[in-house]
Amino acid sequence: MSTLIFTEALLTTGLGHLGRCTALAEKLLEEGETTVQMVLHSDPTSSHWSFPCQVQAINWKEKNQLKEFLDEYNQTTDLSDFTFYVDSYLAELEIYNTLKHYCSELICIDDDNRIEYPAFSTILNPGYPGLYLEYNTEKYKILTGKERVLLRKPFRENFEIPKKNNPPLKILVTLGGSDPHLFSEAILSLLVKNFPTIEKHLVVGPGFTNEVKLKELSDKNTFFHKNLSAIQMRDLMIQMDFAITAGGQTTYELDRCKVPMVLIKTAENQEGNIRGFVEYQKGQVVREPKELVDILENNFFRTADLD
Questions:
Q1: Which of 15, 72, 131, 238 is the most buried (most CB within 10 A)?
Q2: What is the CB neighbour count within 10 angstroms for residue 266?
Q3: Coil/strand/helix, residue 49
Q4: Angle, helix 93-102 to helix 63-74, in steps of 10 degrees
C-alpha cells in the first residue's frame, strides 16, 4: 500500500499535528508501506524538524494548488490505490471531498469533531478525546482511544527511566510550538518566585515571540531548550521529576516517560484530551497559571524541604 499524509505546521497551529503525522509516517514505514510521502503546508515553524519520509511543501488547503499537485502525481502513479491521511485544524470540507475523490481510503485525523467529514471516511481520533464525542458510526468508521495514540519512534522504543526525586528537583515546562497567550511568562514568573532552588527547564517552541522577556524573568536555575529532536526531547523528559504541559500530543510523550504532570489548556481542541487524563489517570488541570502554586505546593512539593 501507498500513503500520502496531508498536514500543516504553522505559527498559528503549532507542532502537534506535525508530531503525530511524523509518528504516523514512521509507523507506516516500519509496517512495510512501500510509499509514504507527507504533503505539508508550513512556514519557518518546522524548519528544524526531522522527517522520516519525503516531504512536498505546498498549501494543499488551497483547492487549485491541491488539484494541480494531485493531477500531476496521478500522471505517474495511480492515486486510486492510495490511502490519504489528513490532519488539519484549517482545511474546509471541499478540500476533504477533493481528496476523497482521488484515493481508495480517506482517513481524517480529528480531535474534536471539527467538521462533517465526507461520508464513508475513517475518522482516527488518536487518544482520549474520541471517547467523549458523538461520532456518526453509521456514516464513518471510528478509530479512537489511548491505544491509537501516535508516538514518535524514540517514545515507542524501550528505554530506561531514572528514579524520580521526591520532592522534585527538576521541573519541565512545555507548551507546544507557539505560546500566543504568553503562558510561559506567567508560569516562569511563578516558578522563579515560589521555587527558586528548583531547576526550571523551559522548552521554547519555534513560534515563541517572547524569548527576550523569558530570559529577563529567569534565574540561575532556569534552563532553555530549543529545536529538540524527538530523541533529545525524550531524553530531557526522562530526567525531569515533574512537568507543566499544554494539553495536546506532548501529554502522551510525558506519560510514556512516566513524568507526573499538571495540564493547562492552551487550545480549545485539547479539552477532551485533558478530560481523559483527569478521568482515566487522575491527572490535574489548571485553567490559568496562577492556580499552579497551590497545586504544586499541596501535591508535589513539600515547601519546608526546599528552604
A1: 15
A2: 18
A3: coil
A4: 10
* H/E stretch holding 101: helix 93-102
pLDDT score of 33: 86
Measured CA distances, 145 to 3, 111, 179, 268 (Å): 23, 11, 27, 19
Maximum alpha-carbon separation in the chain: 70
- Given CA atoms 64, 112, 38, 82 in this order, what sign does their dihedral have? negative
* Nearest alpha-carbon partner for 212 in 174, 182, 171: 182
Q: Which residues of 92-104 are buried (b: 16+ CB within 10 A; e: fewer)?
A: eeebbebbbebbe
C-alpha distances in Å from residue 158, one per residue of 21, 114, 124, 153, 164 = 21, 35, 26, 10, 18
Angle at 200 between CA 198 and CA 205, to 5 degrees: 175
Three-state DSSP string of 122-134? EEEECCCHHHHCC
Residue 301 pLDDT = 63
Coil, strand or helix: which one is 20? helix
Q: What is the pTM of this model?
A: 0.89
Summarize pLDDT for 18-59 with one digit per residue, the tens: 999 999 999 999 999 889 999 999 988 787 899 999 999 999
Place of cell 487524563: 277
CA distance 305 to 307: 6
Handedness of CA 11, 13, 16, 21 (dihedral sign): negative
